[in-house]
Amino acid sequence: MTTTTGHGGPRGRRVRARLMLTVVGVVTVAAVVLSSLAFVLVSRSLRAEVLDRAVEEARFGVGVLAQERLSERVRHGEIEASGLADDFQRRDMTVYVDLGQGEDFVSGLDVPAAPELVSADVIELVAAGHVAAEWLDVGGVPHLVTAARKQPAGPDFYFFTEVGDVDSALTQLGLVLAGASAVLVLVGGIAGWRVARLAGSLADTIDELTAARDRERRFVADVSHELRTPVTALVHEAAELTAGCDRLAPGSRRVVELLDRDVRRLRDLVEELLELSRLDAAGATDIESGEVDVARLLDAVAAQRLPTASVRAPSGLTVRTDRRRLERIVANLIDNARVHAGGESVSVRADLDGSTLVVEVADRGPGVPDAQLERIFERFAKGDAARAGAGSGLGLAIVREHARILGAAVTARNRDTAGLAVEVRVPVTVVTGP
């Protein structure tokens, strides 16, 4: 009688079975634990980032903007009259202001009375002079509400931040992690290379999310903490010095004038950086479409930015597009031409090419070397030294971002005679033709 031993025997099969069960069990436990941990860490990190940013916005909106613009006892209508409402709108802030005695002010979002939505703990913290925050569901949409009181007597400001994109991202991340865990459990120890590939893919995804989050967090934190408040103070201090400039000696007067100019340039740079930050954010891709009289828009922007510029646009042409973004594009192009044209003439032209609005801003300045034409739309790029004037290098980058959101194409070319021409082709819906 022959006894069979080795790999093919019952003992070997039991060992292989036990080893397989052990490997599958370890992979299952590891997959569940790691996926849950990754989800919790990313979830906490994303929510903490949103919370930190919302709290800083609330502190800036109340502690700086409201404190500067509003009187100690805020009256009804003062928020709009002071320009604070426009500041909130430019910064994409949705604000509910409780003025007391049944009066309120709402900017951006039509919501019920905020004190009726938030908990008593938030109201108590705000009354004690703290900045409070709470995650709420407003009309079926998740929001983060941050609240602060203008010192010393109010009113109370409630800032609404929609966080549906965060929940959506976390849901997608949860699905990805659940799928990865299921695959790991199925393949177990017999498909290690697949596990490694999936783990690598998941790690890349998490690294990309983390890197993007870190870049945004660093940018917003640096601008918020290091620039906004000091620059605001510097602008006011420079304005006070300029107000008494007549009493100074000519040499000192020149220094004060240069200081005031440079501080205002710094403030403009901060505003442009903040605008780029908003454009980089996911929520900055929204388009508010409305009817725009092209000729009137170009005339108004040119009159404000450079009255000497010549404007040519078809009379009676009305299109449907995002007026605010189109206005910002044209304004930045005129500012760029004014800064870099060296006092030469600037022309603004608009034409209709089918369902495309073509806007061109051209100058008679030194132009840009052909090799640098693409780079002038990069951030902080100033092209040739001949055109490196007082600009920040962000104006054309902002133009490109607004054009991207509108689905428009923006190009630059050197004119045959002299100067630079920048053309923007915006897809529009024609309401009335010329």
Overview of this structure, please?
The protein is α+β, with helices and mostly antiparallel strands and about 425 residues long. It folds into three domains: about 180 residues, no CATH class; about 70 residues; about 150 residues, Heat Shock Protein 90. Helix 1 packs parallel to helix 7 and helix 7 runs antiparallel to helix 8. The N and C termini lie far apart (about 105 Å). The N terminus is likely disordered.
Short description:
Helix content is 53%, strand content 19%.
- Biggest β-sheet: strands ordered side by side in the sheet: 2-1-5-4-3
Shape: globular
Tally of helical segments: 11
**How many domains in all?**
3
**CA-atom Rg in angstroms:** 29 Å
Unreliable runs: 1-9, 192-200, 384-388
Described by strand count, sense and barrel closure, the largest sheet is: 5 strands, antiparallel
Mean pLDDT: 76
Structural class: alpha+beta
Please report which band the strand proportion falls in: under 5%, 5-15%, 15-25%, 25-35%, 35-45% or over 45%.
15-25%
Tell me how many strands there are. Answer: 13
N-to-C span = 105 Å
